[in-house]
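Per reviewer request, we include the raw input and output of the structure prediction for the construct analysed in the revised manuscript.
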Amino acid sequence: MLMNVAIIGFGNAVVNYHLPYLDKKENIKVKTIYRREEDRVGDTERELLYPEITFTTIIQDILQDDEIELIVVATHVDSHIEYAKLALEHEKHVLVEKPFASTSAEANDIFELATRKNLIAMANQNRRFDGDFLTLKKVIEGGKLGNIVEIQSHYDYFQPQYARSGFGLLHGLAVHTIDQLISIYGVADRIDYDVRSLIAPGESDDYIDIDFRYVRMKATIKCSLLVKIEHPKFIVHGNRGSFVKYSSGHQTKNGDGRTRVSIQAEPEDNWGTISYVDDEGTSHTEKVPSEATDYGILYDQLLQAIRHHGDKPVKDEEVLYVLDILHDGIEAAKRAN
């Protein structure tokens, strides 16, 4: 049975990371997109690329539409809670862009409201379905590396201009990689923060180095706007070997102006490399075929949770933990600057 979806917002996240993957779903349809009137000024031409979707500036059009089961909130974080609450109060399930809220207390209020309403509220942690991350999980679960002792996760650019425009890396990028780590290993025994504003002191954080310490393993999340030479996305060391993977690309542009995606693994030239020692003591170095990026998987799993009362792919406690980490990171940045 078809699930009708409404989206609040029509920014780059919607155009690049929601609509292209939902285009491929036969059982999920984006029926309506709500935009504030002021957001449409000078930006209505893009709407013409989506003739199958109704655009509205009247929010009641989606809140009072009985055919809509799920509302996606894809706005600035400052309005996430307001819109999520409205959706739940109108008996709609809600998927909220990350970061889910400004604080874990705000997020918990929404989760409690959803529980009382017997509805689902969930964070859109779609980066769990990045091809390079899925490949990393495959390698770890495959066991060739033995016991994992260290993981490095990088999300780097050379874009110093963003440091002065309010683009904080913690909420903008690290929220993805922190969630990826938490989805595998859960709560850390200790977290050490190094969050700074190197380019414009006192402005948005532009350098992040966070160590998650577990009993026998350390995982490091690094983000920077001052990395000119590409660094591996993932470096993993175990007691029997190591794995290195550079970042995957996943988007292509189609001639009709819409963002299109190809759900297929990247070419062999971009595969990661594993080097390990087997049970007989023989060394091996191999290429690891990449998994495909598919953010639509999150929608598939969410649909199962809505229709068949399955588990949410992103658990409430994971969202709250990530938000607490972001809060502590911001506090660390204040001390550093």
